[in-house]
Structure formats: C-alpha cells, structure tokens
Design goal:
Oligomer: single chain
Strand order of the largest sheet: 3-2-1-4-5-7-6
Bound molecules: S-adenosyl-L-homocysteine, magnesium ion
C-alpha cells in the first residue's frame, strides 16, 4: 500500500510526535531544491516524516538519519518502506552521540534534544562540506526563547537557557554565517564559510 505525506502528518498529530511544522519544512525543502543539496544528515528522525519529505525533492537525494527511540524508529522504517525510499534513506536506531560517520554532507539538519544543540553542532559539522549548511529547528520553542516573563517549570527554563546559549554560540561562530528565521517553530540557517 502506498502512503501519502498527509497521512504521516495526521499520524504525527494524533500521536503527539513533534514533526516539523508545515511552513518550516516547506522553507527547508525550497533551500534543498534551489541549492541542489544531495547528501543530508539528519539528527532526530522521529517517524521519518522530514527525511521522506527531503528525499521527495529530487531522486538523487540521500538522507542519513538517526533516532534513539525504538518505537519511533520502527514506525520510521515502516514509513520509509511504504514510500519505497529504503535505498535512499539510511536510518540508525541509536543515540546520535554514538554514531560513526565516513561520508560528508551538504546539509546537516539538527532536530533532536534541545539541550544538546551545541554538542550536535560540534560533533557533526566536521562532516559538512565547505559551503554546506546547518538547519536547526525549534529555536523559538513556542515563543519561549524570546519571552521576558518568568517561566514556571524548572525543566522548561533549563531548555530555554540551552537554546539561548545555542543561539549565542551560532552568532559568535565565525566559521559559519548564520541567519535566523521566524518560520515554523524558529529555524536557523548556518552556512559554512569557504
Ligand atoms: N525531524 C523529525 C522530527 C524529530 S522530533 C521530523 O520533522 O519529521 C525529535 C526526535 O529526536 C525525537 O523522536 C527524539 O527521540 C529524537 N532524539 C532526541 N535526542 C536524540 C539523540 N541524542 N539521538 C537520537 N535521537 C534523538
Ligand atoms: Mg523540530
């Protein structure tokens, strides 16, 4: 049976899986198309939604993606198979920090634990080609990273602090030229300087 993208979006909604928001994914897919991105590394596959969307932009696109949650990984494998993309999406069921890579990539997409963005960036950007790009999702965290009000939950406060640290880290990083977009849940685009 063939599956439609809308069905993945519905499944994600019903099961509270935090896939990319529609305008966010559209923005990233436009970049991929316009810049002829071919090799992509994604951190945080969830059910495979964004990896599948990226692959569908062009038949020469390959995605390597990693998901630590066993149930979401199983669901992603099923979805990738239903879209007949098992030759173009390599998915690993492990913590991203244990991932070993040989290849280099045109695009790195960071969309996993918000507290670890700096660490993901440091571990994976050495595998980025010159002129390559890093997309990072959820930098607004539902508007919380910009709020001046006191956040009640200690846990949420901690995550907001980590995301703001990441935003400062990107601004100060002279190896990359970063722009921030108020699209979806907040996306940064960091281009590796030549
Ligand atoms: N990119 C997906 C959504 C990912 S949601 C999409 O838009 O379709 C974030 C996912 O990252 C979650 O499923 C979570 O289990 C996973 N994750 C968080 N930290 C991780 C880590 N350190 N290693 C691997 N996966 C991680
Ligand atoms: Mg996200």
């Amino acid at each position: 049976m063939d599956l439609k993208i809308e069905e993945l979006e519905m499944y994600a909604k019903e099961n509270h899986i935090p896939i990319m928001l529609k305008d966010g994914i559209t923005f990233m897919l436009t970049y991929i198309k316009e810049n002829q991105v071919k090799n992509i590394l994604e951190i945080g596959s969830a059910i495979g939604y964004s990896a599948i969307c990226m692959c569908l932009v062009d038949k020469d696109i390959h995605v390597t993606t990693v998901e630590r949650d066993e149930k979401r990984y199983q669901e992603a494998v099923k979805n990738i198979r239903k879209f007949h993309l098992e030759d173009r999406i390599s998915i690993c069921n492990q913590d991203a920090f244990t991932l070993e890579l040989q290849d280099t990539f045109d695009l790195l997409f960071i969309d996993a634990a918000k507290s670890q963005y700096i660490k993901f960036f440091e571990k994976f950007t050495p595998f980025l080609k010159k002129g390559g790009v890093v997309f990072s999702d959820n930098l607004n965290f539902h508007g919380l990273t910009h709020t001046t009000e006191r956040i009640e939950s200690r846990n949420v406060r901690g995550l907001v602090r980590k995301l703001n640290d990441y935003i400062s880290f990107l601004k100060q990083n002279t190896m990359f030229d970063t722009k921030f977009y108020d699209i979806g849940d907040g996306i940064s685009v960091s281009i590796k300087r030549e």
